[in-house]
Amino acid sequence: EVQLVESGGGLVQAGGSLRLSCAASGFTFDDFAIGWFRQAPGKEREGVSCISISDGSTHYADSVKGRFTISSDNAKNTVYLQMNSLTPEDTAVYYCAATQGGICETLGNDYWGQGTQVTVSS
To answer: What is residue 20's DSSP assignment?
Structure first.
């Protein structure tokens, strides 16, 4: 079965950093695109970042561009989201998602993890 397990969330002060991990199993890793959404209380779910495993192409929301970096370790079937210069506006539950089409345009249509809480204090 397809499984996506997030880790790395927690409480951090403004200006600090966190690295989220999404460990994937149950499918051919490099046939997928994998990325992150986030949802804060009272707000709609927002796409954050995505990576196409086969060619390494990446995408970022304007709100995180220049601060967040997505990467993959194909040997470990794991995608990382390095988050720097965090602000309270980044506080949300972060969800890993995967799409079997292999392109980020369809991220969110196939598989989801359970989410990990990121809280940024001021």
So the answer is: E
